[in-house]
Amino acid sequence: MTDLLSAEMRKCFTGLLFWLISIFVVVMSFSFNAICFISTKKDKKEVYNDSILYVGLIILPIIAAIFVAIFIGTEFSEGTIRSKIVAGHTKYEIYICELIVCEAVMILIQYVFFFCIYAFSFLFFGAFHHSFSLMMKLQLLGLLGTVEMTAVIFMISMLVMNKAVSISSCMILAVCLFVVGVIIYNKIEEHYSELIVLDDGFITETQRSTLIAHSYVYGVDTEGLNGGKLLRYEFFYDYLPQCQASRYIYERSVPYHWQSFAVYDVLTTIVSTFIGAFCFRRSKLK
Amino acid sequence: MFNLIRAEFRRMLNFKGFYIYLILSFLLGSFFLNERDTFSSYEVMIVYFTMLYGFLASPFISLFVCRDHHDGTIRNKIIAGHSRSSILIAEYIVCFAAAMIMFGVYWTNVFINMKSDNGRFSYSSLMIIKFMLCCVLITAVYTALIVTAAMLIGSRASAVVWTLISLILLIMGGSLISGMVETDTMERIKKDIGFYDADEEELLSDTEREICVFFDDLLPFNQSMQLEHYILLANLYNNDKINYASEYKKLYEEEAKVCRKELINKSTKFLFVDAAFIAVITAFGVFFFRRKSLK
Lengths: 286, 295
Known about the structure:
The complex is a heterodimer.
Chain A: H1 2-14, H2 16-43, H3 55-77, H4 80-86, H5 91-124, H6 132-160, H7 163-196, H8 205-214, H9 227-239, H10 241-250, H11 258-282
Helix pairs in contact in A: 1-5, 2-3, 2-5, 3-5, 3-6, 3-7, 3-10, 5-6, 5-11, 6-7, 6-10, 6-11, 7-9, 7-10
Chain B: H1 2-13, H2 16-34, H3 42-70, H4 73-79, H5 84-116, H6 125-153, H7 156-192, H8 206-218, H9 220-237, H10 246-291
Helix pairs in contact in B: 1-5, 2-3, 2-5, 3-5, 3-6, 3-7, 3-9, 5-6, 5-10, 6-7, 6-9, 6-10, 7-8, 8-9, 9-10
């Protein structure tokens, strides 16, 4: 398995795809800073550039969909997976090795994105409101989201076994999750503005102090959002990596309910890996 | 050409992705209806489809169109005597027809829900037809862009990636332009009412503003955003469910009238802009596809 892993790593890091995506990420981080710089200069607003440090986490599932689907799709279309099985490796080993490589690449891409944005922001603006330790904590939380999304996308790619179809399905999934994330985030924001004007009879003292301290409080019904719908929204607000990343942008500390983020991310990673490995072992290779 | 279109359409009906997309269109309608709030009238539901259509259509069209390149059918068509321009136009017509069927499924779902809720449109039938025509043309622009790109790229995987990345960039750029135009409009209004000094520099110069407005009216995603914006605003200012104070009520009714007038002007403008844009993209596609070497 170690031989397989080192061979996969070598293949991935010497391949064109990884470097193209790295260059794309560097160009993108520069563009975000340049756009932010131009708009702040024109708007004459106070510079609060910390928000773009976490934009990378929001768009990372789309990058993961491109990288993982192409990387795995190429393995299938070139027949490398069959060759590995012929060489004596089990399907389970192949699945785990490929997953480790994809996870490693995506984590690396996440940190490349972060450090590039950090470096360019220092160059353009000079300072941040967030402390470096907080940034690292948030990136570490974001890493769990990246690992989760990569595991899900990887599972789809390994089960579809066709480059074009897996790229299509993974990218549709990434874009749909992004859209759903934006909708849920906006709904919760609207809910927050309703909560803030609620009378004391509808909200307890403890809930009000939580609301003021963390900009949100869970489980309080309003006219606009209540019951099962509120529960559903709050679940996805914690569960979706896009919603998690959007919350890092506006927080001045580690977000409220961060433990749920971590639990959901780890659980999804484990479940998708088990399902993927199980189905891949039973699948027929063409 | 008619035979080519018929054959392509038969191929489309045998394409599994087409049926998956029909189900997706139906689910999309149900999702938007579920997320509908007080200010979202049924007219906005028509526009929502066009906002997501680009993303949905990109993999679908790329997979469908590039299969011809992948299995060498495109060479057979040329050997059979069809011109390259007729091949491109036939693909375009079939993909557009498929998009219309998806739109039909989405729209039927919304319409049935509207009837079962005893809901109604807040605009006249003529305006609804105009909205639908606008949305059809926006869909046609997306289809033309993706078909042209897929025919020129050839590879299925590359076509999916490049068309989706281009669409994401187009939407990000479009949102940026739309934001700049909106902020500049607000700044200019504030300056006119004396909130700022008259000699203070504007956010955009006149030429910059003209360029931004041009792209804001040209890009399909921006067109959808503008339509949605004016419909929502008109509904917000003139909504029976909201009890505005009597001194503001008349003012808001006037505002709603202005929004509706602007909506009529914009939708008429978009019809012409889209028709011209489709012609340009098709001409561009035919020009380059004629020169493309097929392996």
